[in-house]
Design goal:
0% strand, single chain
Length: 67
């Protein structure tokens, strides 16, 4: 989904005439803001995964046997 959004923004940027400096700048800014936000979100999720040791926790939970 993220890649599709970036591709669509790239298409919009490419379709702009060189006279539309404001629109090109705005679209590039939106694209960069989205990329920055997604990277920050991914980094945060990775930190949580590491702190909680989620992979190991899920493995342990999957191996619980209730009698």
């Amino acid at each position: 989904m993220k890649i599709e959004i970036i591709r669509k923004l790239d298409i919009l940027i490419d379709l702009q005439s060189e006279d539309n400096i404001y629109q090109i700048t705005l679209l590039k800014s939106i694209k960069q803001d989205l990329i920055n936000e997604w990277n920050a979100s991914d980094n945060y999720a990775q930190q949580i995964r590491e702190v909680l040791d989620m992979d190991n926790t899920y493995d342990l939970l999957n191996n619980i046997k209730i009698r």
